[in-house]
């Protein structure tokens, strides 16, 4: 017995139905709208123009006066004096002090009939106040650092997908007086797709190089604000964590708390300043040197910054060499060599140096295979993993008796295809 399918089960006939075509068209329009919404809308906060003025924030005053206006003037004058004392400025008259002030920033104030209670910021003009404070000269700054503020709240991690108060605090921060050269994306357009929380956990140098080249930066800073609310509109606790570099290294953390959402912007502004202090101390301690495995070809750096980077690379190479020698039980370089019994020839022994070697590692097995192969190359004294990126590009620190060209030849003898760069090699099969 032959059974025929009813006409309404014919797929081609159903696709030709006007209602079905209309639904497909609406679906395509909705999909296009959703994709456009990924990069459009009210997102992104442009950073404020950088000023080199001298700023002092968080000054608390509690004064009285003949009336409300007189109390406010008395409070502002007291804030100017306190700010000048914090800067350890010399003793000057009140009229001259007022001539140095370019602006008063009201962070919080309560005005009564004869009393003025406020938290103020005072901005001094650098051109006029710099000579008195000994801050008129140029100040050394860090290499350009891409700054990615992350907000963790309600179980979600947000960077530029939506506008946040944490992003706003960084956008409004005056970086002119800081020793850190912050590169702050606006978060508009394609930034919300390129710069996400997931990016901070990547280890691939190739991917990071593309992003850093896009923003003309040398390395990355990740200030994280983890906000917890006890109840809607109630106290807000903030756990702030500073991380640095493509390996997401921890620099430090601190905690802050406010009683309600109205005080949250003020807390975040204070947190930004604490982060700046933390980053400045890390720079002074040599912890913010750009990663030598990142490409700096597209970054314009001042000569003194280039010199610091090269010094950091040499120090890292010496440290890796010492670790490799200790691991393999070699004699430390500081030990005096044995005096030969035969006359010395003009040929000098090859110097031992360390170099970065990048290799694609699609899986865990390829990491072990690459390190074993490189370790067996002639002249190689030691191999240490700087970073492991499964599915990306891993970086090894190779200690070799010879120069970079000699290491390249040794790796070619082991069947590797070698691309030679500046103080680094990239190898592949």
Account of the protein in words:
This protein has helices spanning 11-15, 18-37, 68-86, 94-100, 126-133, 165-171, 191-194, 205-214, 264-284, 303-327, 364-375, 404-412; strands spanning 54-64, 101-111, 115-124, 144-147, 150-153, 156-158, 181-183, 219-229, 236-244, 249-258, 352-361, 380-387, 392-401, 417-420, 424-428. It contains twelve helices and 15 strands. The protein is of the alpha/beta class and 429 residues long. Residues 1-15 and 330-348 have low confidence and may be disordered. 34% of the residues lie in helices and 26% in strands. The chain folds into three domains: 54-133, Dodecin subunit-like; 144-284, TolB, N-terminal domain (Rossmann fold, 3-Layer(aba) Sandwich), CATH 3.40.50; 302-333 and 349-429, Gyrase A, domain 2 (2-Layer Sandwich). The strands form three sheets. Strands 4, 5, 6, 7, 8, 9 and 10 form a seven-stranded mixed β-sheet that branches. The chain has a five-stranded mixed β-sheet with strand order 12-13-11-15-14. It has a three-stranded antiparallel β-sheet with strand order 1-3-2.
């Amino acid at each position: 017995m032959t059974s025929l399918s009813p006409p309404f089960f014919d797929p081609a006939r159903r696709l030709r139905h006007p209602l079905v075509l209309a639904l497909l068209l609406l679906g395509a329009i909705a999909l296009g709208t959703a994709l456009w919404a990924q990069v459009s809308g009210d997102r992104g906060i442009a950073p404020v123009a950088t000023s080199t003025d001298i700023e002092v924030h968080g000054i608390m005053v509690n004064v009285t006066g003949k009336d409300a206006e007189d109390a406010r003037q008395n409070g502002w004058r007291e804030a100017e004096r306190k700010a000048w004392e914090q800067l350890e400025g010399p003793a000057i008259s009140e009229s001259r002090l007022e001539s140095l002030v370019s602006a008063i920033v009201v962070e919080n104030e309560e005005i009564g009939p004869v009393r003025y209670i406020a938290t103020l910021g005072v901005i001094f003009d650098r051109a006029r106040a710099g000579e008195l404070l000994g801050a008129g000269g140029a100040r050394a700054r860090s290499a350009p650092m891409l700054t990615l503020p992350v907000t963790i709240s309600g179980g979600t991690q947000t960077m530029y997908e939506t506008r946040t108060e944490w992003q706003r605090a960084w956008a409004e921060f005056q970086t002119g007086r800081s020793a850190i050269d912050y590169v702050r994306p606006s978060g508009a357009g394609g930034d919300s797709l390129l710069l996400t929380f997931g990016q901070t956990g990547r280890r691939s140098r190739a991917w990071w190089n593309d992003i850093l080249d896009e923003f003309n930066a040398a390395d990355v800073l990740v200030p994280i604000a983890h906000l917890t609310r006890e109840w809607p509109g109630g106290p807000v606790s903030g756990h702030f964590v500073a991380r640095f570099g493509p390996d997401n290294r921890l620099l430090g953390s601190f905690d802050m708390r406010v009683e309600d959402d109205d005080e949250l912007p003020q807390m975040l502004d204070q947190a930004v300043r604490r982060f700046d202090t933390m980053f400045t101390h890390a720079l002074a301690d040599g912890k913010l040197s750009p990663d030598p495995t990142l490409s700096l070809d597209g970054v314009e750096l001042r000569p003194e910054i280039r010199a610091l980077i090269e010094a950091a690379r040499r120090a890292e190479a010496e440290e890796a060499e010492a670790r490799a020698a200790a691991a393999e039980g070699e004699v430390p370089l500081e030990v005096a060599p044995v005096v030969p019994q035969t006359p010395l020839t003009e040929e000098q022994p090859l110097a031992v140096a360390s170099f970065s070697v990048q290799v694609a590692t699609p899986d865990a097995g390829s990491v072990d295979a690459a390190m074993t192969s490189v370790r067996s190359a002639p002249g190689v004294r030691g191999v240490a993993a700087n970073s492991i990126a499964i599915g990306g590009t891993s970086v090894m620190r190779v200690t070799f008796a010879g120069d970079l060209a000699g290491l390249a030849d040794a790796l070619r003898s082991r069947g590797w295809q070698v691309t030679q760069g500046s103080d680094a090699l990239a190898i592949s099969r």
